[in-house]
Specification:
The protein is 33% helix and 23% strand. With 629 residues, the protein is of the alpha+beta class. The N terminus is likely disordered.
C-alpha cells in the first residue's frame, strides 16, 4: 500500500511538473530599459507565453492630448521581428485621448517570442518619429552595468577641490560627443546649445556618425562657455575653455533611466541606482564630471516665488531665508568639496536671478492663477522690489566673483546682469570686474550678432582688452557670414503697424488664398523636423499657387543660423522682435502652448489656431480640403 501510494503521488507530481514546464509563462515585472526616444510609455509587466508576447503598458502624457500606437508596431529580438497582433484598452492607429490624470493603462499583444529571450526592443512603426524603447531586459536585472567604451582615465576620482577660474580669451573650440552604447534608432543628430557670457546663446545641430557614435562641433568661443544637450529629457552640462578640444562620453542609457526612475517616484518599483550621465575630459573636465555625478537637487525654483500675494519685503525675506537654509544643507552634506562649490555657485546664480525678476515672477503667478495671458492687460497690485531689497541680496555673497561664470546656472547670472532696469554694479558699489564689464558688453553683444556694432560704441563705454576684442571679433564673424549668405535668403520686413494689427497685416497681401502660418525657431528640433517633412510636398501633392507658406520666428533664432536655414525653406519669412512675437503668440492674437504651432487662414481671410497640424497627416488632409473649396 505504501509503495502503491508513493507511486501514485510520484506519477501525479511528474504530470504536474510536465504540465507546468510546457505551459509556464515567463513573467517580468518592470523590466530595466536601456534607452528610449520617449518617456510616454512604460511596461509594468511582460508575459511570454506559447501564443503571445503581452506588454502591460502604462502611458504618461498631457491630459486631454492624444497618443497613438501604430498597427505596424513590432518587437525586435535577436534579429527577428514579432508583429503586433492585438490590443486591449487602446485601438491601433486611432487617437487615444489621455484622461484628466495624464495616466492610462492598456495591453499590447505581439507574436510569441522564445522564452529564453534575454532582451528586446519595442519599435512603434518605421517612421523617423515613431516611439522606440530599446534594450528591454527579460533577465530580471535590477541595476545597470558599467558603461562600455569609456577610457580608463575617466574612471579616476575627481582630483580638483575647487571651481577653476574662467579663461578670458577667444579661440575655436572643438567638442567631441561620444555616445556610449550608441543606437542610431534613438539619435542621428543632437541639438547642442552653447551658453556664453555675452548672452548670445547659440544652438547647433550636430550630426552623429552612425558607425562611431560620435558627433563633433566646432565653433568660435569667447570666454568660458557651457555646452548643454540632452539624452532623452535629461540635460548634460559641459564646461568648455576657449580654443580647446574637449571630449565627453555620454551614457545613452540615461534615456531609459528616466522611465525606470519614474517608477520609484510613484512607488511602483524599487529605486534603481542612478547612472552617471557623462564623463568629460578637457580643461574643465573635473567640473563637468562633478555636475554629472548624481546628487540632491538644491534648486529654489518653486511655486513659492510665483506667489503674487507676497509683498516685496516678504518675498525678499523668503528668498534670503531659503538661500541660507539651502546653503547650510549643502555645507552639511557629504558631497565632495568640488560638488559642494558647484551647487553653491548654482544657488547664488539662481538667487540673483530670483530677486532681479521678482516682479515678473509674481506677475506671472497672478496671470497663471487668473488665466490672464493677454499682454495688453496689465497686472496691478504687485508690490515692487526696490533698491533696498536688491542691496540686501547683494550682501549675501560676492556677486562680482568671476567663478559665478562657472556655475550651472550661467544663463540666470547673465540674465540678471543684462536686466535693463537694474544696474547691479551701482547697487553693490562695484567699479571694476565682471559685473560692470559684462553689463556693458551685454548691451553691445546683440548688435555685434546682427552685424551692426561700431567700434566707437565700444570705446564710448570704456571697454578694453578681452571684452572689446571679443565684441569686435563677433562683429567681424557676423559681417563675413552675412556676406556669404547674400542673395540666398530673403527676410521680409515686418509691416509698420501697431502690434495689434501686425498679424492681419502679414497675411493681408494673400487674401483669397489658403495660408499656412508656421510659428517656429531655429533651435526647435520638432519645428525643423516638421518643416523638413513639408518641403518635398511643396513640389508634389501640395504644389498649388493658391497655397501660401508663411514662417514666423523671433530673434531668439540667431541671425546667421536663421538665414542659413531659411535659404532651404520655400515660403515667406518673418523674424519678429520679441515685443511683436510676444503680442501675437501670448494672447494678443493667439495663446501658443509651444512651437511648432500653426494657424490656418482660409480663402476668406478667417483664421484659427490649428495645433492638430502637429500631426502631419492631419495637416496634409486639411490643406487639401481647404484648397478644394
Amino acid at each position: 500500500m505504501i509503495k502503491s501510494s508513493f507511486s501514485l503521488i510520484a506519477i501525479v507530481a511528474a504530470m504536474l511538473a510536465a504540465t507546468s514546464c510546457s505551459q509556464q509563462d515567463k513573467v517580468v515585472e518592470y523590466p530595466l530599459i536601456d534607452m528610449a526616444n520617449t518617456d510616454a510609455l512604460d511596461f509594468a509587466k511582460i508575459e511570454l507565453t506559447d501564443t503571445a508576447t503581452i506588454l502591460h503598458t502604462n502611458a504618461y502624457f498631457r491630459p486631454h492630448n492624444w497618443i497613438r500606437i501604430s498597427s505596424e508596431s513590432y518587437l525586435l529580438a535577436d534579429g527577428e521581428k514579432y508583429m503586433l497582433t492585438g490590443s486591449n484598452g487602446i485601438e491601433a492607429d486611432s487617437l487615444f485621448f489621455m484622461p484628466d490624470s495624464g495616466e492610462a493603462q492598456f495591453t499590447l499583444f505581439f507574436e510569441p517570442m522564445p522564452r529564453n529571450t534575454r532582451q528586446f526592443d519595442f519599435i512603434e512603426g518605421e517612421s523617423d518619429d515613431s516611439w522606440k524603447i530599446l534594450g528591454i531586459d527579460l533577465t530580471g536585472k535590477k541595476s545597470y552595468d558599467p558603461p562600455t567604451g569609456l577610457p580608463s582615465e575617466l574612471l579616476n576620482p575627481i582630483k580638483s577641490e575647487a571651481i577653476p577660474d574662467p579663461v578670458f580669451k577667444s579661440g575655436e573650440t572643438t567638442l567631441n560627443i561620444h555616445y556610449m552604447g550608441y543606437r542610431k534608432e534613438i539619435r542621428t543628430e543632437s541639438n547642442v546649445s552653447i551658453a556664453n557670457i555675452f548672452g548670445l546663446d547659440q544652438t547647433y545641430t550636430v550630426s552623429t556618425d552612425t558607425l562611431t557614435g560620435t558627433g563633433t562641433l566646432k565653433f568660435m568661443q569667447h570666454g568660458p562657455a557651457q555646452a548643454i544637450f540632452g539624452v532623452g529629457r535629461k540635460l548634460q552640462f559641459v564646461w568648455l575653455a576657449p580654443g580647446e578640444t574637449a571630449d565627453i562620453y555620454v551614457d545613452m542609457r540615461q534615456s531609459g533611466e528616466l522611465i525606470v526612475a519614474r517608477r520609484s517616484k510613484k512607488g511602483l518599483d524599487k529605486e534603481i541606482p542612478a547612472l552617471k550621465g557623462a564623463y568629460a575630459a578637457g580643461t574643465y573636465g573635473d567640473l563637468s564630471n562633478a555636475y554629472a555625478t548624481p546628487d540632491a537637487d538644491y534648486s529654489m525654483l518653486s511655486k513659492v516665488f510665483y506667489n503674487y500675494e507676497m509683498s516685496a519685503d516678504e518675498y525678499t525675506d523668503t528668498l534670503i531665508a531659503t538661500y541660507k537654509s539651502i546653503t547650510d544643507s549643502i555645507e552639511k552634506s557629504d558631497m565632495p568639496q568640488l560638488t559642494k562649490e558647484l551647487q553653491s555657485t548654482a544657488l547664488k546664480q539662481e538667487t540673483l536671478y530670483l530677486i532681479t525678476f521678482a516682479d515678473n515672477m509674481r506677475e506671472n503667478g497672478y496671470r497663471l492663477a487668473h488665466d490672464m495671458w493677454d499682454p495688453t492687460k496689465e497686472v496691478n497690485g504687485i508690490d515692487k522690489i526696490t533698491a533696498k531689497h536688491l542691496a540686501r541680496v547683494a550682501e549675501l555673497f560676492d556677486i562680482n566673483d568671476p567663478k559665478l561664470l562657472m556655475g550651472k546656472n550661467i544663463v540666470y547670472y547673465i540674465a540678471a546682469l543684462k536686466s535693463p532696469d537694474i544696474d547691479w554694479a551701482n547697487i553693490a558699489n562695484i567699479t571694476a570686474g565682471i559685473v560692470p564689464n559684462l553689463r556693458k558688453s551685454l548691451k553691445l553683444a546683440p548688435k555685434a550678432a546682427e552685424g551692426k556694432l561700431k567700434e566707437s560704441e565700444i570705446k564710448s563705454l570704456g571697454l578694453q582688452g578681452f571684452y572689446a576684442d571679443a565684441l569686435m571679433q563677433i562683429q567681424a564673424q557676423t559681417e563675413a557670414s552675412l556676406a556669404a549668405l547674400k542673395g540666398k535668403a530673403k527676410v521680409e520686413t515686418a509691416p509698420a503697424v501697431p502690434n495689434a494689427k501686425l498679424f492681419d497685416a502679414i497675411i493681408a497681401p494673400y487674401r483669397g488664398k489658403v495660408i499656412l502660418v508656421d510659428f517656429w525657431n531655429t533651435w526647435c528640433r520638432p519645428c525643423r523636423n516638421a518643416i523638413a517633412k513639408n518641403e518635398p510636398l511643396k513640389d508634389t501633392e501640395l504644389k498649388n499657387d493658391d497655397l501660401v507658406w508663411i514662417y514666423i520666428a523671433n530673434e531668439s533664432s540667431p541671425l546667421i543660423t536663421y538665414q542659413t536655414m531659411i535659404a532651404d525653406i520655400k515660403g515667406i519669412h518673418y523674424r519678429l522682435n520679441n515685443e511683436q512675437w510676444n503680442y501675437i503668440t501670448a494672447g494678443g492674437n493667439f495663446r501658443l502652448d509651444g512651437i511648432p504651432s500653426y494657424v490656418l487662414v482660409d480663402k476668406s481671410g478667417n483664421y484659427s489656431l490649428r495645433n492638430d497640424f502637429r500631426n502631419h497627416d492631419v495637416m496634409k488632409s486639411a490643406l487639401k480640403e481647404e484648397l478644394s473649396k
